[in-house]
TrEMBL record:
Stretches that traverse the bilayer: 69-89, 110-131, 151-171, 178-198, 204-228, 331-350, 370-396, 408-429, 435-455
Keyword Membrane: yes
InterPro entries: MATE_fam, MATE_MdtK, MdtK-like
Swiss-Prot/TrEMBL GO biological process terms: monoatomic ion transport
Origin species: Methylorubrum populi (strain ATCC BAA-705 / NCIMB 13946 / BJ001)
Membrane topology of the entry: Multi-pass membrane protein
Protein's UniProt name: Multidrug-efflux transporter
Keywords: Antiport, Cell membrane, Ion transport, Membrane, Transmembrane, Transmembrane helix, Transport
Keyword Kinase: no
Protein backbone atom coordinates (compact mmCIF):
# COMPACT_ATOMS: atom_id res chain seq x y z
CA UNK A 1 0.00 0.00 0.00
CA UNK A 2 1.40 3.40 -0.91
CA UNK A 3 1.40 6.11 1.68
CA UNK A 4 -0.98 9.02 1.39
CA UNK A 5 0.54 12.10 -0.28
CA UNK A 6 -0.75 14.15 2.61
CA UNK A 7 1.47 12.25 5.07
CA UNK A 8 5.05 13.15 5.86
CA UNK A 9 7.55 11.67 8.25
CA UNK A 10 6.58 14.17 10.89
CA UNK A 11 2.81 13.93 10.39
CA UNK A 12 0.35 15.59 8.06
CA UNK A 13 1.63 17.76 5.26
CA UNK A 14 -0.23 20.93 4.25
CA UNK A 15 -2.03 20.52 0.93
CA UNK A 16 -0.54 22.65 -1.84
CA UNK A 17 -2.14 26.08 -2.03
CA UNK A 18 -3.95 27.16 -5.15
CA UNK A 19 -1.59 29.12 -7.43
CA UNK A 20 -4.43 31.59 -7.98
CA UNK A 21 -4.76 32.22 -4.25
CA UNK A 22 -1.00 32.50 -3.93
CA UNK A 23 -0.94 35.08 -6.71
CA UNK A 24 -3.86 36.98 -5.21
CA UNK A 25 -2.03 37.19 -1.87
CA UNK A 26 1.21 38.26 -3.55
CA UNK A 27 -0.56 40.92 -5.62
CA UNK A 28 -2.44 42.31 -2.63
CA UNK A 29 0.71 42.27 -0.49
CA UNK A 30 2.61 44.30 -3.08
CA UNK A 31 -0.19 46.49 -4.39
CA UNK A 32 -1.48 47.60 -0.96
CA UNK A 33 1.65 49.62 -0.06
CA UNK A 34 1.97 50.87 -3.64
CA UNK A 35 -1.62 52.10 -3.53
CA UNK A 36 -0.91 53.85 -0.23
CA UNK A 37 2.21 55.43 -1.72
CA UNK A 38 0.22 56.66 -4.70
CA UNK A 39 -2.51 58.04 -2.44
CA UNK A 40 0.06 59.78 -0.27
CA UNK A 41 1.86 61.24 -3.29
CA UNK A 42 -1.40 62.32 -4.87
CA UNK A 43 -2.29 63.66 -1.47
CA UNK A 44 0.40 66.29 -2.01
CA UNK A 45 -1.56 67.58 -5.01
CA UNK A 46 -4.92 67.02 -3.36
CA UNK A 47 -3.90 68.77 -0.12
CA UNK A 48 -2.67 71.70 -2.21
CA UNK A 49 -6.10 71.82 -3.87
CA UNK A 50 -7.72 71.83 -0.42
CA UNK A 51 -5.52 74.74 0.69
CA UNK A 52 -6.16 76.62 -2.54
CA UNK A 53 -9.89 76.00 -2.12
CA UNK A 54 -9.68 77.82 1.20
CA UNK A 55 -8.27 80.82 -0.65
CA UNK A 56 -11.27 80.97 -3.01
CA UNK A 57 -12.47 80.04 -6.51
CA UNK A 58 -9.86 82.10 -8.38
CA UNK A 59 -6.81 80.62 -6.58
CA UNK A 60 -8.07 77.06 -7.05
CA UNK A 61 -8.63 77.79 -10.74
CA UNK A 62 -5.10 79.22 -11.08
CA UNK A 63 -3.65 76.29 -9.17
CA UNK A 64 -5.53 73.87 -11.44
CA UNK A 65 -4.04 75.44 -14.57
CA UNK A 66 -0.49 75.44 -13.20
CA UNK A 67 -0.72 71.96 -11.68
CA UNK A 68 -2.27 70.51 -14.82
CA UNK A 69 0.55 71.90 -16.99
CA UNK A 70 3.19 70.72 -14.51
CA UNK A 71 1.71 67.22 -14.32
CA UNK A 72 1.50 67.01 -18.11
CA UNK A 73 5.29 67.27 -18.32
CA UNK A 74 6.02 65.50 -15.05
CA UNK A 75 4.02 62.44 -16.08
CA UNK A 76 6.14 62.22 -19.23
CA UNK A 77 9.19 62.09 -16.98
CA UNK A 78 7.52 59.45 -14.81
CA UNK A 79 6.88 57.36 -17.92
CA UNK A 80 10.53 57.50 -18.93
CA UNK A 81 11.75 56.54 -15.46
CA UNK A 82 9.02 53.89 -14.97
CA UNK A 83 11.07 51.51 -17.10
CA UNK A 84 13.23 50.96 -14.00
CA UNK A 85 10.60 48.70 -12.38
CA UNK A 86 10.11 46.16 -15.22
CA UNK A 87 13.84 46.02 -15.99
CA UNK A 88 14.76 45.30 -12.38
CA UNK A 89 11.87 42.81 -12.08
CA UNK A 90 13.02 40.94 -15.18
CA UNK A 91 16.58 40.67 -13.83
CA UNK A 92 15.30 39.27 -10.53
CA UNK A 93 13.04 36.81 -12.36
CA UNK A 94 15.95 35.59 -14.46
CA UNK A 95 17.94 34.91 -11.32
CA UNK A 96 20.78 36.93 -12.77
CA UNK A 97 23.24 38.81 -10.61
CA UNK A 98 20.67 41.20 -9.20
CA UNK A 99 23.08 43.60 -7.52
CA UNK A 100 24.78 44.72 -10.73
CA UNK A 101 21.51 44.90 -12.64
CA UNK A 102 19.79 46.94 -9.95
CA UNK A 103 22.71 49.33 -9.59
CA UNK A 104 23.08 50.01 -13.30
CA UNK A 105 19.34 50.39 -13.89
CA UNK A 106 18.81 52.76 -10.94
CA UNK A 107 21.80 54.84 -11.98
CA UNK A 108 20.48 55.10 -15.55
CA UNK A 109 17.00 55.99 -14.23
CA UNK A 110 18.40 58.80 -12.08
CA UNK A 111 20.34 60.13 -15.08
CA UNK A 112 17.14 60.12 -17.17
CA UNK A 113 15.25 61.97 -14.44
CA UNK A 114 17.99 64.60 -14.20
CA UNK A 115 18.12 65.14 -17.97
CA UNK A 116 14.32 65.42 -18.21
CA UNK A 117 14.27 68.01 -15.43
CA UNK A 118 17.08 69.98 -17.07
CA UNK A 119 15.12 70.11 -20.33
CA UNK A 120 11.70 71.03 -18.93
CA UNK A 121 12.25 73.52 -16.13
CA UNK A 122 13.26 76.55 -18.27
CA UNK A 123 9.99 76.40 -20.21
CA UNK A 124 7.86 76.21 -17.05
CA UNK A 125 9.19 79.61 -16.01
CA UNK A 126 7.02 81.25 -18.70
CA UNK A 127 3.71 79.67 -17.65
CA UNK A 128 1.92 83.03 -17.31
CA UNK A 129 2.82 84.08 -20.86
CA UNK A 130 1.72 80.70 -22.22
CA UNK A 131 -1.66 80.86 -20.45
CA UNK A 132 -2.27 84.38 -21.73
CA UNK A 133 -1.64 83.12 -25.26
CA UNK A 134 -4.26 80.45 -24.57
CA UNK A 135 -6.81 83.17 -23.69
CA UNK A 136 -7.00 82.45 -19.98
CA UNK A 137 -8.25 85.22 -17.70
CA UNK A 138 -5.33 87.59 -16.92
CA UNK A 139 -5.67 87.43 -13.13
CA UNK A 140 -5.83 83.64 -13.15
CA UNK A 141 -2.85 83.42 -15.55
CA UNK A 142 -0.81 85.74 -13.32
CA UNK A 143 -1.46 83.66 -10.19
CA UNK A 144 -0.80 80.42 -12.08
CA UNK A 145 2.55 81.75 -13.30
CA UNK A 146 3.61 82.75 -9.79
CA UNK A 147 2.55 79.34 -8.47
CA UNK A 148 4.50 77.50 -11.19
CA UNK A 149 7.76 79.39 -10.66
CA UNK A 150 7.96 77.76 -7.25
CA UNK A 151 6.22 74.47 -7.99
CA UNK A 152 8.58 73.57 -10.88
CA UNK A 153 11.39 72.85 -8.40
CA UNK A 154 9.28 69.94 -7.17
CA UNK A 155 10.30 67.97 -10.29
CA UNK A 156 13.95 67.62 -9.22
CA UNK A 157 13.42 65.39 -6.15
CA UNK A 158 10.09 63.93 -7.32
CA UNK A 159 11.52 62.10 -10.36
CA UNK A 160 14.41 60.74 -8.26
CA UNK A 161 11.83 59.46 -5.77
CA UNK A 162 9.93 57.72 -8.59
CA UNK A 163 13.10 55.95 -9.76
CA UNK A 164 13.88 54.61 -6.29
CA UNK A 165 10.25 53.67 -5.65
CA UNK A 166 10.17 51.64 -8.88
CA UNK A 167 13.39 49.81 -8.03
CA UNK A 168 12.22 48.99 -4.51
CA UNK A 169 8.84 47.80 -5.80
CA UNK A 170 10.61 45.41 -8.22
CA UNK A 171 12.64 44.11 -5.26
CA UNK A 172 9.29 43.75 -3.43
CA UNK A 173 10.43 46.20 -0.76
CA UNK A 174 7.84 49.01 -0.96
CA UNK A 175 8.01 49.69 2.77
CA UNK A 176 10.63 52.48 2.78
CA UNK A 177 8.94 54.71 0.16
CA UNK A 178 5.60 54.06 1.85
CA UNK A 179 6.88 55.19 5.25
CA UNK A 180 8.47 58.30 3.75
CA UNK A 181 5.32 59.14 1.74
CA UNK A 182 3.03 58.79 4.76
CA UNK A 183 5.19 61.22 6.73
CA UNK A 184 5.45 63.63 3.78
CA UNK A 185 1.69 64.06 3.38
CA UNK A 186 0.88 65.76 6.72
CA UNK A 187 4.17 67.65 6.50
CA UNK A 188 3.15 69.09 3.13
CA UNK A 189 -0.21 70.15 4.48
CA UNK A 190 1.36 71.77 7.54
CA UNK A 191 4.08 73.60 5.60
CA UNK A 192 1.64 74.72 2.90
CA UNK A 193 -0.79 76.08 5.49
CA UNK A 194 2.05 77.82 7.35
CA UNK A 195 3.46 79.58 4.29
CA UNK A 196 0.03 80.38 2.79
CA UNK A 197 -1.91 81.49 5.88
CA UNK A 198 0.72 81.88 8.62
CA UNK A 199 3.12 84.74 9.33
CA UNK A 200 4.75 84.59 5.86
CA UNK A 201 1.24 85.07 4.35
CA UNK A 202 2.42 84.10 0.85
CA UNK A 203 -0.99 82.94 -0.35
CA UNK A 204 -0.93 80.72 -3.44
CA UNK A 205 2.89 80.83 -3.67
CA UNK A 206 3.17 79.55 -0.09
CA UNK A 207 1.22 76.40 -0.98
CA UNK A 208 3.76 75.57 -3.72
CA UNK A 209 6.72 76.34 -1.46
CA UNK A 210 5.49 73.87 1.15
CA UNK A 211 5.36 71.10 -1.45
CA UNK A 212 8.87 71.76 -2.76
CA UNK A 213 10.41 71.69 0.71
CA UNK A 214 8.48 68.53 1.58
CA UNK A 215 9.68 66.64 -1.51
CA UNK A 216 13.34 67.51 -0.95
CA UNK A 217 13.06 66.24 2.61
CA UNK A 218 11.32 63.08 1.37
CA UNK A 219 14.00 62.10 -1.16
CA UNK A 220 16.70 62.78 1.42
CA UNK A 221 14.95 60.50 3.91
CA UNK A 222 14.49 57.71 1.33
CA UNK A 223 18.17 57.81 0.34
CA UNK A 224 19.14 57.61 4.01
CA UNK A 225 16.87 54.60 4.61
CA UNK A 226 18.31 52.75 1.59
CA UNK A 227 21.88 53.39 2.70
CA UNK A 228 21.17 52.27 6.28
CA UNK A 229 19.24 49.09 5.37
CA UNK A 230 21.80 46.26 4.93
CA UNK A 231 19.58 44.30 2.52
CA UNK A 232 19.17 47.36 0.30
CA UNK A 233 22.63 48.81 0.76
CA UNK A 234 24.19 45.67 -0.75
CA UNK A 235 22.83 46.70 -4.15
CA UNK A 236 25.00 49.85 -3.96
CA UNK A 237 22.36 51.84 -5.81
CA UNK A 238 24.23 55.12 -5.46
CA UNK A 239 27.70 53.87 -6.39
CA UNK A 240 29.42 55.87 -9.14
CA UNK A 241 26.36 57.99 -9.91
CA UNK A 242 28.54 60.32 -11.96
CA UNK A 243 29.35 57.54 -14.44
CA UNK A 244 27.30 57.64 -17.65
CA UNK A 245 26.40 54.03 -18.49
CA UNK A 246 25.39 54.57 -22.12
CA UNK A 247 24.29 50.96 -22.69
CA UNK A 248 21.90 50.82 -19.74
CA UNK A 249 20.80 54.41 -20.27
CA UNK A 250 19.82 53.53 -23.84
CA UNK A 251 17.79 50.55 -22.66
CA UNK A 252 15.98 52.54 -19.99
CA UNK A 253 15.09 55.16 -22.60
CA UNK A 254 14.13 52.54 -25.21
CA UNK A 255 11.62 50.90 -22.87
CA UNK A 256 10.58 54.11 -21.11
CA UNK A 257 10.18 56.55 -24.01
CA UNK A 258 6.91 55.04 -25.31
CA UNK A 259 5.68 54.96 -21.72
CA UNK A 260 6.48 58.65 -21.40
CA UNK A 261 4.70 59.49 -24.66
CA UNK A 262 1.65 57.46 -23.58
CA UNK A 263 1.64 59.27 -20.24
CA UNK A 264 1.84 62.65 -21.93
CA UNK A 265 -0.96 61.62 -24.30
CA UNK A 266 -3.25 60.89 -21.35
CA UNK A 267 -2.12 63.85 -19.26
CA UNK A 268 -2.36 66.04 -22.35
CA UNK A 269 -5.99 65.07 -22.72
CA UNK A 270 -6.70 66.40 -19.23
CA UNK A 271 -4.50 69.47 -19.75
CA UNK A 272 -6.31 70.31 -22.99
CA UNK A 273 -9.61 69.86 -21.17
CA UNK A 274 -8.50 72.14 -18.33
CA UNK A 275 -7.37 74.87 -20.73
CA UNK A 276 -10.59 74.49 -22.73
CA UNK A 277 -12.62 74.63 -19.54
CA UNK A 278 -10.91 77.91 -18.66
CA UNK A 279 -12.39 79.48 -21.81
CA UNK A 280 -15.86 78.96 -20.31
CA UNK A 281 -14.92 81.02 -17.25
CA UNK A 282 -13.64 80.65 -13.69
CA UNK A 283 -16.76 78.82 -12.39
CA UNK A 284 -16.60 75.74 -14.67
CA UNK A 285 -12.80 75.69 -14.36
CA UNK A 286 -13.02 75.54 -10.56
CA UNK A 287 -15.69 72.82 -10.78
CA UNK A 288 -13.51 70.90 -13.23
CA UNK A 289 -10.52 71.17 -10.88
CA UNK A 290 -12.51 69.73 -7.96
CA UNK A 291 -13.92 66.90 -10.10
CA UNK A 292 -10.45 66.01 -11.37
CA UNK A 293 -9.16 65.76 -7.81
CA UNK A 294 -11.92 63.31 -6.91
CA UNK A 295 -11.36 61.23 -10.04
CA UNK A 296 -7.59 61.25 -9.58
CA UNK A 297 -7.87 60.15 -5.95
CA UNK A 298 -9.94 57.12 -6.99
CA UNK A 299 -7.48 56.40 -9.80
CA UNK A 300 -4.56 55.99 -7.38
CA UNK A 301 -5.82 52.53 -6.37
CA UNK A 302 -5.90 50.85 -9.82
CA UNK A 303 -2.69 52.71 -10.62
CA UNK A 304 -1.02 50.99 -7.66
CA UNK A 305 -2.49 47.65 -8.70
CA UNK A 306 -1.09 48.23 -12.19
CA UNK A 307 2.36 48.95 -10.74
CA UNK A 308 2.17 45.71 -8.78
CA UNK A 309 1.12 43.92 -11.98
CA UNK A 310 4.21 45.27 -13.75
CA UNK A 311 6.41 43.68 -11.09
CA UNK A 312 4.50 40.38 -10.83
CA UNK A 313 4.24 39.97 -14.62
CA UNK A 314 7.84 41.11 -15.08
CA UNK A 315 9.18 38.54 -12.64
CA UNK A 316 7.19 35.75 -14.29
CA UNK A 317 8.33 37.01 -17.69
CA UNK A 318 11.97 36.88 -16.62
CA UNK A 319 11.46 33.35 -15.27
CA UNK A 320 9.69 32.20 -18.49
CA UNK A 321 6.59 31.35 -16.41
CA UNK A 322 3.79 31.88 -18.95
CA UNK A 323 1.03 30.56 -16.68
CA UNK A 324 2.28 32.73 -13.84
CA UNK A 325 2.22 35.93 -15.84
CA UNK A 326 -1.31 35.19 -17.09
CA UNK A 327 -2.50 34.67 -13.52
CA UNK A 328 -0.81 37.89 -12.37
CA UNK A 329 -2.49 39.89 -15.12
CA UNK A 330 -5.96 38.39 -14.67
CA UNK A 331 -6.02 38.94 -10.92
CA UNK A 332 -4.78 42.53 -11.24
CA UNK A 333 -7.39 43.36 -13.89
CA UNK A 334 -10.27 42.02 -11.81
CA UNK A 335 -9.05 43.86 -8.70
CA UNK A 336 -8.84 47.17 -10.59
CA UNK A 337 -12.23 46.66 -12.22
CA UNK A 338 -13.99 45.85 -8.95
CA UNK A 339 -12.59 48.82 -7.10
CA UNK A 340 -13.52 51.33 -9.80
CA UNK A 341 -17.08 50.01 -9.97
CA UNK A 342 -17.35 50.86 -6.27
CA UNK A 343 -15.84 54.33 -6.87
CA UNK A 344 -18.30 55.02 -9.67
CA UNK A 345 -21.20 54.18 -7.38
CA UNK A 346 -19.88 56.49 -4.66
CA UNK A 347 -19.55 59.41 -7.11
CA UNK A 348 -23.14 58.93 -8.25
CA UNK A 349 -24.62 58.50 -4.77
CA UNK A 350 -22.71 61.09 -2.70
CA UNK A 351 -21.50 63.89 -5.01
CA UNK A 352 -21.88 66.81 -2.58
CA UNK A 353 -20.02 64.98 0.17
CA UNK A 354 -17.07 64.30 -2.15
CA UNK A 355 -17.03 67.85 -3.48
CA UNK A 356 -17.06 69.19 0.07
CA UNK A 357 -13.77 67.43 0.75
CA UNK A 358 -12.03 69.72 -1.75
CA UNK A 359 -14.05 72.93 -1.63
CA UNK A 360 -15.08 75.04 1.35
CA UNK A 361 -18.73 75.93 0.85
CA UNK A 362 -18.15 79.27 2.62
CA UNK A 363 -15.23 80.32 0.38
CA UNK A 364 -15.86 83.16 -2.12
CA UNK A 365 -17.80 81.86 -5.14
CA UNK A 366 -17.87 78.27 -3.84
CA UNK A 367 -21.66 77.96 -3.61
CA UNK A 368 -21.97 78.33 -7.39
CA UNK A 369 -19.29 75.69 -8.00
CA UNK A 370 -21.11 72.84 -6.22
CA UNK A 371 -23.92 72.18 -8.75
CA UNK A 372 -21.55 72.42 -11.74
CA UNK A 373 -19.08 69.98 -10.15
CA UNK A 374 -21.94 67.59 -9.31
CA UNK A 375 -22.89 67.51 -12.98
CA UNK A 376 -19.29 66.76 -13.97
CA UNK A 377 -19.14 63.91 -11.43
CA UNK A 378 -21.80 62.00 -13.39
CA UNK A 379 -19.39 61.78 -16.32
CA UNK A 380 -16.46 61.10 -14.00
CA UNK A 381 -18.32 58.07 -12.65
CA UNK A 382 -18.91 56.81 -16.18
CA UNK A 383 -15.26 56.88 -17.20
CA UNK A 384 -13.90 55.71 -13.82
CA UNK A 385 -14.22 52.02 -14.72
CA UNK A 386 -12.51 52.39 -18.09
CA UNK A 387 -9.78 54.51 -16.51
CA UNK A 388 -9.01 51.86 -13.89
CA UNK A 389 -8.99 48.97 -16.36
CA UNK A 390 -6.70 50.75 -18.83
CA UNK A 391 -4.23 51.59 -16.04
CA UNK A 392 -3.98 47.97 -14.87
CA UNK A 393 -3.80 46.60 -18.42
CA UNK A 394 -1.02 49.06 -19.16
CA UNK A 395 0.84 47.84 -16.09
CA UNK A 396 0.52 44.23 -17.24
CA UNK A 397 1.90 45.08 -20.69
CA UNK A 398 4.79 46.99 -19.14
CA UNK A 399 5.70 43.82 -17.28
CA UNK A 400 6.20 42.27 -20.73
CA UNK A 401 8.17 45.40 -21.72
CA UNK A 402 5.55 46.00 -24.42
CA UNK A 403 5.34 49.78 -24.61
CA UNK A 404 5.27 50.90 -28.26
CA UNK A 405 1.85 49.60 -29.30
CA UNK A 406 0.19 50.75 -26.05
CA UNK A 407 1.63 54.19 -26.82
CA UNK A 408 -0.07 54.17 -30.24
CA UNK A 409 -3.33 52.98 -28.67
CA UNK A 410 -3.19 55.83 -26.16
CA UNK A 411 -2.48 58.43 -28.85
CA UNK A 412 -5.38 57.22 -30.98
CA UNK A 413 -7.89 56.86 -28.15
CA UNK A 414 -7.16 60.12 -26.39
CA UNK A 415 -6.35 62.40 -29.31
CA UNK A 416 -8.08 60.64 -32.20
CA UNK A 417 -11.35 60.16 -30.33
CA UNK A 418 -11.45 61.88 -26.93
CA UNK A 419 -10.30 65.39 -27.90
CA UNK A 420 -12.22 65.76 -31.22
CA UNK A 421 -15.41 64.31 -29.76
CA UNK A 422 -15.13 66.43 -26.62
CA UNK A 423 -14.64 69.58 -28.71
CA UNK A 424 -17.57 68.71 -30.98
CA UNK A 425 -19.87 68.15 -28.01
CA UNK A 426 -18.63 71.15 -26.03
CA UNK A 427 -18.93 73.72 -28.79
CA UNK A 428 -20.75 72.09 -31.69
CA UNK A 429 -23.53 70.55 -29.59
CA UNK A 430 -23.52 73.33 -27.00
CA UNK A 431 -22.83 71.02 -24.05
CA UNK A 432 -20.01 73.19 -22.69
CA UNK A 433 -17.93 71.55 -19.97
CA UNK A 434 -20.13 68.45 -19.91
CA UNK A 435 -19.20 67.80 -23.54
CA UNK A 436 -15.51 67.80 -22.63
CA UNK A 437 -16.14 65.19 -19.95
CA UNK A 438 -18.17 63.10 -22.40
CA UNK A 439 -15.09 63.09 -24.67
CA UNK A 440 -13.10 61.70 -21.73
CA UNK A 441 -15.51 58.81 -21.42
CA UNK A 442 -15.30 57.84 -25.10
CA UNK A 443 -11.51 58.07 -25.35
CA UNK A 444 -10.86 56.07 -22.19
CA UNK A 445 -13.34 53.36 -23.19
CA UNK A 446 -11.56 52.78 -26.51
CA UNK A 447 -8.14 52.69 -24.87
CA UNK A 448 -9.18 50.29 -22.10
CA UNK A 449 -10.77 47.78 -24.49
CA UNK A 450 -7.80 47.88 -26.88
CA UNK A 451 -5.24 47.39 -24.09
CA UNK A 452 -7.10 44.44 -22.59
CA UNK A 453 -7.36 42.79 -26.02
CA UNK A 454 -3.61 43.25 -26.56
CA UNK A 455 -2.80 41.86 -23.13
CA UNK A 456 -4.89 38.75 -23.75
CA UNK A 457 -3.12 38.14 -27.06
CA UNK A 458 0.46 38.73 -25.86
CA UNK A 459 0.08 36.84 -22.61
CA UNK A 460 -0.97 33.80 -24.62
CA UNK A 461 1.43 33.78 -27.56
CA UNK A 462 4.48 35.85 -26.63
CA UNK A 463 7.61 33.88 -25.65
CA UNK A 464 9.89 35.27 -22.98
CA UNK A 465 12.75 37.31 -24.29
CA UNK A 466 11.14 38.42 -27.56
CA UNK A 467 11.72 42.03 -26.60
CA UNK A 468 14.22 41.59 -23.83
CA UNK A 469 17.77 42.41 -24.67
CA UNK A 470 20.58 40.01 -23.86
CA UNK A 471 22.07 40.55 -20.43
CA UNK A 472 25.42 41.41 -21.91
CA UNK A 473 27.58 43.43 -19.61
CA UNK A 474 25.38 42.64 -16.61
CA UNK A 475 28.39 42.40 -14.35
CA UNK A 476 29.71 45.79 -15.30
CA UNK A 477 29.92 48.42 -12.60
Amino acid sequence: MTSSPSLAAGGLRRPPASPWLDELRATLKLSAPLVLINLAQHGLVASNAVLLGRLGAEPIAAGALATSLYLLLFIGGIGLTSSVAPLVAEAVGQGAEAAGGVRRTVRAGLWVGFLVTLALMPGLWFTEALLRLLHQEPAVARDAGAYMRVLQWWMVPALAFMVLKGALAALQRPGPPLAVSLVALPLNLALGAFFAFGPPDLGIVGVALGTVITEFLAIGALIAVIRLDPNLHRHRMFAQLWRLDSERLARVIRVGLPMGVAGIAEAGLFEAATVAMGTFGTLPLAAHAVTLQIAATCFMVPNGIGQAATVRVGRAYGAADRAGLRRAGAIALWLGFGFMVACAGLQLLAPRTLIGLFLNADAPGAADVFPVAAGFLIFSALFAISDGVQSVALGCLRGLQDTKVPMLIALFGYWGIGVPLGAALAWGAGMGGRGIWAGFCAGLLVVSVALVVRWRRLSTVRPRGSSAHPPAGRNRA
